[in-house]
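Handout, page 2. Input:
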Amino acid sequence: MDGILSPFNPGAGAAPPALTGRDDIREEVRICIERLRIGRHANGQLLVGLRGVGKTVLLERLLYEAEQRDSITLRLEAPEFKSLPASLAPALRVALLRMNRMQSAKEAVTRGLRALAGFVIGLKVSFGDIEVGMDYPPEPGLADCGDLELDLCALLVEAGRAARAAHTVLAIFIDEFQGMPQHELSSLLYALHRCTQLQLPVILIGAGLPPMIKHIGDAKSYAERMFDVHRLGPLTLEAARDAITEPAAQAGVTIQPAALDAIVEQSGAYPYFLQQWGKLTWRAASVSPITPDHVDNVSDAAIAALDDGFYGFRFERLTQPERSYLRAMAELGEGPHDSRRVAKAMGLPSELLEPVRNDLVTKGMLYTAPLGDAAFTVPRFHEFLKRIMPNTVEAEPV
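Output:
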């Protein structure tokens, strides 16, 4: 069948043809936003999971649905080299200008834009990467003291008041949330908490790797009461099947039940992997239906595609000692694993390997599980490591 017409599209954050298995989260976010619109309380929402489980895709869908309900949205990605003020200021300016369309909000929006001007001027010394157009001169004493926590709080409060005057909700969407520096995260949580206390219609929907939860908890002691956490993993069997059959059926293609079972089993029901298997089995079939033979014929190619792209780019960033450490972990299984057990498998003192482990956490290859053990941030990474480093002898550090 023509690959051009294939509905399956594996990619970083690429929307699947059918977003299945996440309806409960979408409904929860809808309820939260509508509660805020009528002046009720609602917690922020966090999407937590490994790479490839569809966090970014779901975050984008939630943003789209919020926009369809006339909410004002900001979309940020916690950057490696750009500060939160530099990311937030231009996006918040656009949000405020959108609120300005409502006659009832014009005065509140003007004050919000004056606060934004003060925010930029006050923090320019500390955060030299802030660049944003000024619509109004700053108001002395409004979000301009030069302290990020206080100024960000004042700015978001004014933005929240503008949203309330515009009869809308300010929804802030942040991807890769685990990467936000601690001081910036602490300031953001303080500002959001103040908005909650003032019953302002401001909500944060964040997505990130599992370390995000500890990161947030460490930033503010009250943070655990500010958010509802949704842990994303593989899809249920029913949702995984629907992710393949629904788009295929819309294109007039059927998939034999045994073939569908094979795709779900071999992909582990991970959303990204399902798209990879769907793409290749589609191309393997000259005509409908897709059969188990088609799935068998592309299994090696699907794994190779994951090894070259999904896994390979991450592997290439690693030093040899880091590869050795991960290979020793892989021999122990999927994990999580205690660092002392990994060190024993490598025949080295755990203290000697601690810097390597910490570097792997910093690079986002590992995360610290609740009991202090380390786990892979990428699903089935232990299987990849065994394929690319088949001999455990290679696990000896160089």
